[in-house]
From TrEMBL:
This is Pilus assembly protein CpaE. GO terms for cellular component: cytoplasmic side of plasma membrane; cytosol. It comes from Croceibacterium soli. The keyword Manganese does not apply. The keyword Oxidoreductase does not apply. InterPro entries: CheY-like_superfamily (IPR011006), P-loop_NTPase (IPR027417), ParA/MinD_ATPase (IPR050625). GO terms for biological process: negative regulation of cell division. Keywords: ATP-binding, Nucleotide-binding. GO terms for molecular function: ATP binding; ATP hydrolysis activity. The lineage of its organism: Bacteria, Pseudomonadati, Pseudomonadota, Alphaproteobacteria, Sphingomonadales.
Length: 429
């Protein structure tokens, strides 16, 4: 994705121009450009090659939309476009090829977004608003202008604390509210509920990956993962109980690497035993979301896991989330729990049995089925905080990043605005 070299500065360039191949798409685009305050005359007939020809003799706009429909070699033509564009041009591609590999390659080359025809007014409006926000957003210099991948592992201190519910809800929020292409990896190979929570069949994708790690590549990911929505795909399994997990963990590392190439975010539903057996799974994880409940056993295991992280994964930022909180009913008070783990609980999610039943009946993630509930609001706060913590890591890592493959297009961070939420969420009922 692209960002301006200098935030908010477009010079004397036009704010927007589009080169579109068909009248149907132009009919959708022009009213939206008028809404944005731009001249509809800037929506011209013609595709990517017309854009290259026109921009070779005129300054490129701040935001450029180009149609790839008539391009026989989109990636090569994009390189030609880069040669005639001003640094910092935000480019939105439009096309009719629904191909994950093309989408991934276009993003890797520096394109801000790829919209699939037929376009809707809402889709165009959202894309243009996001592109325009790049210029308005404050920047901390070039360090945060690199493409990054955000990863969180969700671990429960005890069985039944709701870690899988939290994992599926976070993945759903990343993909919908935060508009990030997201992968959900459910590593409970025998009893995982990630697909079930999304009302999907798990398929054999994860099982095949474990059995044949050498097969894992971009094409495998495209075929093996199950789509939950436009931005969310899941890889899970429901392996027979007669088949023990036989792996050295290399398949999981390869999957994470492919996810970093194909998605903007990864959520790993990571059972405790997998954390112990395959600690290298946290090598590229930004945030470990540790889900607990207000019991003595959970307090003990929270202490143990936090201590283990300091020794084995010091680069991972932990967030402690207390789930199913019932004021006045808890086995241990919040104050005593925090005293025992020697740190604050970051978020409290209230117990809501009716909401959980409602989600199960609807075949939806908890947060999707219960957006108006206090628990749903708390989960949205957790999602924003995970992205906020990961943002700081990403900016630091991006300092050593390289320029986009296009040479002239500068990559925009896949992060959203840093969460302003600090400390515990006020969601204790």
């Amino acid at each position: 994705m692209n960002a301006p070299w200098k935030s908010g500065m477009t010079g004397n360039r036009d704010p927007f121009a589009a080169f579109i191949c068909d009248e149907t798409t132009l009919d959708v685009l022009r009213p939206v450009t008028i809404e944005m305050g731009w001249a509809p005359e800037k929506c011209a007939k013609g595709g990517l090659r017309n854009a290259v020809q026109s921009l070779s003799i005129a300054a490129s706009p701040a935001i450029l939309m180009v149609d790839l429909s008539e391009s026989g070699d989109p990636l090569n033509d994009i390189n030609a476009l880069a040669e005639v564009c001003e640094p910092g041009t935000v480019v939105i591609a439009v096309g009719q090829v629904n191909d994950v590999r093309l989408y991934r390659d276009l993003l890797a080359s520096g394109i801000h977004d790829y919209l699939l025809k037929p376009l809707s007014a809402g889709q165009v409006r959202d894309a243009l608003n996001q592109a325009q926000a790049i210029f308005a957003a404050p920047r901390g210099g070039d360090a945060d202008a690199a493409k990054v991948h955000l990863s969180t592992a969700v671990v429960g201190t005890r069985g039944g604390v709701g870690a899988s519910t939290l994992a599926t809800s976070l993945a759903w929020l990343f993909s919908t509210d935060h508009q990030r292409p997201t992968a959900l990896l459910d590593l409970d190979v025998h009893f995982g509920t990630g697909a079930l929570a999304l009302d999907l069949e798990p398929g054999r994708g994860l099982t095949d990956a474990i059995e044949n790690p050498s097969r894992i590549d971009g094409l495998f990911i495209e075929r093996a993962m199950i789509r939950a929505n436009e931005n969310l795909a899941i890889l899970s399994a429901e392996a027979p109980m007669s088949s023990p997990l036989m792996t050295d963990g290399s398949a999981f590392m390869q999957l994470e690497e492919e996810f970093r190439q194909a998605f903007a975010a990864t959520v790993i539903d990571l059972p405790r035993n997998m954390l112990i057996n395959f600690p290298h799974l946290l090598a590229e994880v930004n945030v470990l979301t540790l889900v607990t409940e207000m019991t003595l056993a959970s307090a003990r295991d929270t202490i143990r896991i936090l201590s283990w992280l300091k020794t084995n994964a010091p680069g991972v930022q932990p967030l402690v989330v207390a789930n199913k909180v019932q004021p006045g009913v808890a086995e241990i008070s919040k104050a005593d729990f925090e005293a025992s783990i020697e740190r604050r609980i970051d978020f409290l999610i209230p117990y809501d049995h009716k909401a959980a039943v409602n989600a199960a009946k609807l075949g939806q993630t908890f947060v999707d089925a219960n957006r108006a509930s206090k628990a749903g609001a708390a989960l949205r706060e957790v999602a924003s905080a995970v992205l906020g913590v990961a943002e700081e890591d990403a900016i630091n890592e991006a300092a050593a990043g390289t320029q986009s493959l296009l040479g002239k297009f500068d990559l925009k961070s896949l992060l959203g605005k840093k969460s302003k939420t600090k400390g515990a969420a006020a969601a204790d009922g």
